[in-house]
Amino acid sequence: MELPRGKSYIRLDQVSEEDIENLILRVNSCTWRQTFHIQPVSGLLNDPNGFCFYNGEFHLYYQWHPLGPFHGLKYWYHTKSTDLVHWENVGIAIKPDEYFDSHGAYSGSAVEHDGQLYLLYTGNTRDENLVRRPYLCIALMDEEGNIIKSKKSVLDQVPEGYTEHFRDPKLWKVEDKYYAVIGAQRTDKTGTVCLLSSSNLLEWKFEGELDTELDDFGFMWECPDYFEMGDRGILIFSPQGLEPQGDLYQNIYQAGYVIGEKIDLERRELVHGGFIELDRGFDFYAPHTMKAPDGRRLMVAWMGLPEIEYPTDSSGWANCLTILRELTLRDGKLIQTPIPELQSLRKTKTEAQGELRDETKAVDGFSGITYELVCEFERGDALEYGIEFRASNEEKTVIKFDAAQGKVIMDRAASGKVIGSKHGTERKCRIDGDVYKFHLFVDSSSAEIFVNDGEEVFTARIFPDIRSQEIRFFAKGGQAGFKAVKWDY
To answer: Which of 80, 256, 268, 273 is most deeply packed, by most CB within 10 A?
Structure first.
């Protein structure tokens, strides 16, 4: 059973249990199912939502279309964890069953207030001509996990000057007042972020547009997220409609941030520097952050992109979330590092070191499908050096440093099934100085690569044959030393 795309607003309760079970069986037979990433039980996962710590547990929700690997009637799906590594599927959190969310419970965020968790989200509706109208909606979760939606929208008119693309509120608290940034599109079809405020989370006021220095920067800004680190204010968002510039903006849509002074809430102004992409790879969108009880700023994102088809579609499912990353500031830039809790997944450890002299070398014990790999390089005079993984005679995914260009390059031209090839098969970024470390997290159908302790990150879905398991180290045009350690997952 799979819905035709024209039937994408069919509700889950309109489908038989048998059809759902058959779909899940088909999903579970897919060899590209992930082992340590959050993924949907069926259908399509996209934006992470409502990431928070409440009642002694971490809660994370995501957009979910259960009945097929395409965008249709969206639910909020709920997962929770005590350790940020092992996630329990709780089930549906928000159903699209009211006048204000009849065509989908879209993205939002969460905050604790008066002992309950308040979920602020976008309700999507369409009229008989399929014209969209968004609402701002509230649901409350108690300590037992019961979720009740408010019976009325808390903001039911898009403010003048903006189109129906007005969504994805991200909450934070300042003293005794709540604020939210929300993604918007002006009527001249340019993207921006607006500011909302509330004293009780149930009645919201439109404060106006946030004044930034990016007046004509794409046609829509999705999934904004504002937070502060020290005396810095950081706005993360996902702009749509940026044209590629050199190595920048190579994906269909981008995700990145600006850093500046803290938002001036009275003047609705953010003074900031330039836009910086968060991830240099192929599949990273709609990042969402939270502040953990220990003070860390944690981030998760959708490991996928809108309007891109993936090979798992034929098995009835699509997409997953990234591993969790801790954000820190270094020299005016966000640094991403994998959370140390992931080390609890480490099993068998294998180590190797050696010299590479214009060669590609396989090492005993270095192969696999799901693992963590840290490789430190010491460049001699090699023109390039790096790693081939999920490799065989026919397939390989490559991460390398090209010393002549001063660039890190990820190449998935031979990674297996082709994805989004019209947007290219390589991603590059410049690095100052040599690359001394690649830190890889490889799952059944993904790779996340942290370069130089999080200075840059490359995230990609890959779909190799299950037999492509080799790991190979190489240097070209000279010599390089390497030291590697791998843990099976």
So the answer is: 256
For the chain, give every residue range classified as CATH 2.115.10.20.
12-341
Q: Is 344 left (phi over 0), alpha (psi -120 to 50) or beta?
A: alpha
User: Which active-site residues does the annotation give?
Assistant: 47
Torsion, CA 187, CA 188, CA 189, CA 193, rounded to 10: -70
* Digit-coded pLDDT (tens) for 205-261: 999 999 999 999 999 999 999 999 999 999 999 999 999 999 999 999 999 999 999
Burial bucket for residue 330 (CB in 10 Å: 0-12, 13-18, 19+)? exposed
130: pLDDT confidence band, cut at 50, 70 and 90? confident
Assign domain 346-488 to its CATH architecture: Sandwich (2.60)
CB 109 within 8 A of CB 94: no
Q: Which two tokens stand for residue 103?
A: 């065509």
Q: Considering the entire predicted model, what is its pTM?
A: 0.97
Beta bridge partners of 44: 65, 318
Identify whether the C-beta of residue 66 lies closer than 8 Å to the C-beta of residue 75. Answer: yes
- Measured CA to CA in angstroms, residue 204 lies from 64, 155, 169, 197, 198 at distances of 26, 7, 12, 6, 5
Where helices occur in 316-380 by DSSP H, the ranges are none
Residue 478 phi, psi (nearest 5): 150, -155
Could you report the per-residue pLDDT of 171-208, keeping only the tens digit for each?
A: 999 999 999 999 999 999 999 999 999 999 999 999 99
Query: What's the pLDDT at 6?
Result: 52
- DSSP code, position 36: S
Burial pattern 133-157, b for ≥16 Cβ within 10 A else e, equals bbbbbbbbbeeebebebbeebbbee
Comma-separated ranges of CATH 2.60.120.560 domains in the chain:
346-488
Could you tell me the fold of the domain covering 12-341? Answer: Tachylectin-2; Chain A (2.115.10)
DSSP state of 211: B
SS3 of 156, please?
A: coil
